[in-house]
Amino acid sequence: MSPFRSKRYFREFSLAMGFYVVAIIIRGAVDLEAMPKPLSLTLLFAPVLATILVTIAILRAVFTMDEVQRRVITEACLVSMVIVGMGSFGYALVAEDLCLVEIDLIWVWPALIGVAGIAQCINTLRLR
């Protein structure tokens, strides 16, 4: 197994996120309905393509980590999935009855990342 290459990850991740930011800015600045259909679909799905590239960069980085690093990441992702998944499920069950604000799905990914980051810090300290 090769060692984790942080420079490669940073480069791949930065390029993909840069593409995402540019795609979001362009998508928000143009009138997609006034464009030809192929161009509007390309601009519409460009951020999705960027997120796929981000995912590839993240997975490639995880696959090059040693067993301990991979365990920390995997456990953090599991904790995040359970907390965010069960939390959003529970919230959805009671939101209407309690007149709570409806939460858009766009917030699931940032919540997963945030909780995984906290869990990763805790796991790292726990395994020292």
UniProtKB/TrEMBL annotation:
Keywords: Membrane, Transmembrane, Transmembrane helix
Transmembrane segments: 12-30, 42-63, 75-94, 106-125
Presence of keyword Transmembrane helix: yes
Highest rank taxon of the organism: Bacteria
Protein name: Uncharacterized protein
Record organism: Parvularcula lutaonensis
